[in-house]
Amino acid sequence: MDINKKRKISILGSTGSIGTQALEVIEKLGDRFEIIALTGGSNTELLKQQAQKFKPKYVCSNDKDFKADGVITLYGQDGLEQICSDKENDIILVAVSGKIGLKPTLTAIEHGIDIALANKETLVMAGDIVMQKAKENGVNIIPVDSEHCAIHQCIKNINDVDKLIITASGGPFLRKTTDDMKKATVEQALCHPRWNMGKKITVDSATLMNKGLEVIEAHHLFNMDYDDIEVVVHPQSIVHSAVEYKDGSVVAQIGLPSMHIPIQYAICYPDRYEGIKSKSFSFSEIARLDFEKPDYEKFPSLKLAINAGKKGNGATVVMNAANEESVFAFLNGKIRLYEIYEYTQKIMNYDIPKVSNIDDIFSLDNEIRIKTRELIK
Ligand code: NDP
Ligand code: MG
Fold first, then answer.
1. Partner of 194 for a Cys bridge, out of 89, 143, 237, 359, CB 3.0 to 4.6 A?
2. Rounded average pLDDT over 177-203
3. Residue 29, SS3?
4. Could you count the other beta carbons within 10 Å of the beta carbon of residue 350?
5. Buried b (16+ CB within 10 A) or exposed e, 91-118
6. Which ligand has the shortest distance to the CA of 190?
7. Cα gap 35→48, rounded to integer Å
8. First and final CA of the chain: distance in angstroms?
9. How far is CA 199 from CA 16, 120, 202, 280, in A?
10. Shared-domain flag, residues 243 and 347
């Protein structure tokens, strides 16, 4: 980053968990950033406050009547795409949740704008297309998720890497029995021991589906075979992930579990600043680090996701849509936590059509959501 030039950034999903933390990072970094756009979904009150404070060029929400003083107000998916076509942006942080993130990300890539990527669906639904387009347009995709951000920091030359090692905290049910999981309430599933995140990703962390989605993302981001990506449970969440080089060296990225750090890394890349750092790291304070193999019996969603990744093409679209609809049904009290896996697996048994473009992906996603809702009814 040119020290005298402000980096121009848009934050899609500024009212969410990642988005609000990104604004905290930007505030700490003083005047290194200029905000082009802030966007929210339904939390227009917070969006309005953010607009007053950060004075972006645009705001965008899902409320047609939303207005904020002195800012261009945009609406919905078209608004997000308009923001992502504005070449004034140096980088766009994609921190919306769900499939809404995919098309704006592609639009930004087509306009040569770098991406700091938090949104999972972008790579899970369309990893091949997104990475190919990024390559064609010379766009950097810098991962925000702590595991991929760790791997990004550990890799010098991907051709020298034998294996990626992705760590998982294990979520709230790590030390609970399968029976406890079967009886789990929404409140228990949302009580993550390490990370404070949006509801959908928190439920996915409880079933370890989130780790499966991360394996799929890692496969696309680092062009790594699924057989060369290993998941290890590490309850303290200090080692954020690691890579094993072909000469036997293992390089891990470690640090306190705070999303501020990977967010700052991604939006400032390749530069580093003091910014949000509040405390110096101390090995002696941490004292011990534990690692264990994941329990694939207790957490079958992990294997389900990895197998969908291996099948490739439409399989991850189907798995993602069925899982998300089942997570919503769980959050709405319609099904139990364990049934998220059962419904997703049932849907995975259908014939999965080939997808060759974004329209195919969205129509398959739509079809599967309808099927899943019908099955759950
Ligand atoms: P949140 O649910 O906290 O925030 C989601 C954001 O997206 C909010 O700003 C929300 O707006 C907006 N949004 C949701 N739906 C729509 C829509 N249909 N149209 C427009 N905007 C919408 O999620 P997180 O911040 O936790 O996660 C965001 C993404 O990052 C997810 O894909 C998640 O998997 C990923 N991620 C999150 C991590 C975390 O630590 N939180 C870690 C790694 C990845 P509003 O609230 O105003 O409705
Ligand atoms: Mg993660």
1. 237
2. 90
3. coil
4. 12
5. bbbbbbbebbbbbbbbbbbeeebbbbbb
6. 1
7. 14
8. 52
9. 10, 14, 5, 30
10. no
The answer to whether 193 touches 169, Cβ cutoff 8 Å, is: yes
The tally of domains found in the chain comes to 3
Q: What are the beta bridge partners of residue 8?
A: 34
Query: How far apart are the C-alpha atoms of 112 and 101, rounded to whole Å?
Result: 17
Last residue of a domain, one of 267, 299, 331: 299
129 lies in the same domain as 210 = no
Does 138 lie in the same domain as 26? Answer: yes
> Hey, which of 20, 97, 259, 265 would you mutate to test ligand 1's pocket, going by the most ligand atoms within 8 Å of its Cβ?
97
Range of the domain at 325: 312-377
Tens of pLDDT, residues 273-310:
988 887 899 999 998 999 999 999 999 999 999 999 99
Separation between Cα atoms, residue 226 and residue 2, nearest integer Å: 38
Give yes or no for a contact between 125 and 227, defined as CB atoms under 8 angstroms apart: no
- Maximum distance among all alpha carbons in the chain? 59
CA of 214 to the centre of ligand 2 (A): 7
CA of 244 to the centre of ligand 1 (A): 32
Same domain membership, residue 346 and residue 291: no
User: Domain check: are 206 and 119 in the same one?
Assistant: no
Whether residue 71 contacts residue 58, with contact meaning beta carbons closer than 8 Å, is answered with yes
Atom of ligand 1 nearest to the CA of 61: 20
- Supply the residue whose CA is at minimum distance from atom 40 of ligand 1: 197
In a shared domain, residues 100 and 177: no
74 plus 200 within the same structural domain: no
Assess whether 57 and 125 both reside in one domain: yes
Q: Could you give the residue ranges of the DSSP H alpha helices within the chain?
A: 17-28, 44-54, 76-84, 102-110, 121-136, 146-154, 178-182, 186-189, 199-207, 209-222, 260-268, 283-286, 300-311, 314-331, 337-348, 358-376
User: Is the distance from the beta carbon of residue 307 to the nearest atom of ligand 1 less than 6 Å?
Assistant: no
Dist. CA 219–CA 306, nearest whole Å = 10
Q: Indicate if the pLDDT at residue 8 is higher than 90.
A: yes
**CATH at 48:** 3.40.50.720
* DSSP 8-state code for residue 354: P
Q: Is the pTM of this model over 0.90?
A: yes
Taking alpha carbons only, the member of 103, 71, 98, 64 closest to residue 85 is 103
Identify the nearest ligand to the CA of 75 by its number: 1
**Which pLDDT belongs to residue 361?**
98
By percentage, how much of the chain surpasses pLDDT 90?
93
